[in-house]
Amino acid sequence: MVQIPSFPEANHPLIQSLNHYSDLDMLTLFQRYPEQGKYFTGLFCRYAPIVYSLIGNSARSPVQADYIFALTWRHIFHEMRGLNLRDENTNADTLQNWLINTTAMCINGTEMPPVESINYDINEATPPLWCYLEQALELIPPLARLILVMADNYHWSPTRISAYLQAEGENLSTEDVEYWIQQGRQFVINELPQDICELYFPESLESREDLLDAV
């Protein structure tokens, strides 16, 4: 039997307040208000058990299941932006059927990576947070994004990052790198939807470290 992870955000008042909306209402609100993250997160909480059950029965290990689960929701996140269930080419008359079909497609189309190559940790960043962190990363300056990924994702020290960048022609000292790490984290926080920050970072955001640790 597949052990479905728990998702604490499902119990947050922001998400609980959406329970009376239909799937179609939630999809419409998600598309109409892209600056808000609660509608996608609400749909995720509503359908995570079904999607995870389908994936968990196909994966060889829980680590692989978590990773494919996150990749599937990332695909869903992007596809739902333009989803029209009334379009006959969608091949689904309800959002639930579309999610099931999309999950099956992702299972069949994704090569299962070796466990040792997977960096994703579902306990550090559930799929909605992962999606919005990636979206925020795409919006920040390239140099800040590169430095932040090396620091928070690959755990490189400022000294190592400085040496690498200098070899690439960027004359940045260790102190410069430390500055850009802090700036990069603040850039990402600034680009995240406010409700996503409320859901996942209720503590002091300015002092949060290892922002991309699970991405």
Structure description:
There is one protein chain. The chain has 215 residues and is mainly alpha-helical. It has helices spanning 13-16, 23-32, 38-56, 62-79, 95-109, 127-139, 142-153, 158-167, 174-191, 194-200. Helix 4 crosses helix 5 and helix 4 (62-79) packs across helix 6 (127-139). The longest helix has 19 residues, at 38-56. The model has no long low-confidence stretch (mean pLDDT 90).
List the helices and strands and how they pair.
Elements: H1 13-16, H2 23-32, H3 38-56, H4 62-79, H5 95-109, H6 127-139, H7 142-153, H8 158-167, H9 174-191, H10 194-200
Count of strand segments? 0
Order of helices and strands: HHHHHHHHHH
Beta-strand content = under 5%
Number of helices: 10
Low-confidence stretches: none
Shape, per Cα inertia axes: globular
Overall pLDDT confidence: 90
Based on CA atoms alone, the radius of gyration comes out at 19 Å
| Helical coverage, percent range | 55-70%
* Content-based structural category: mainly alpha
Major beta sheet summary: none
Q: How many angstroms does the end-to-end distance come to?
A: 27 Å
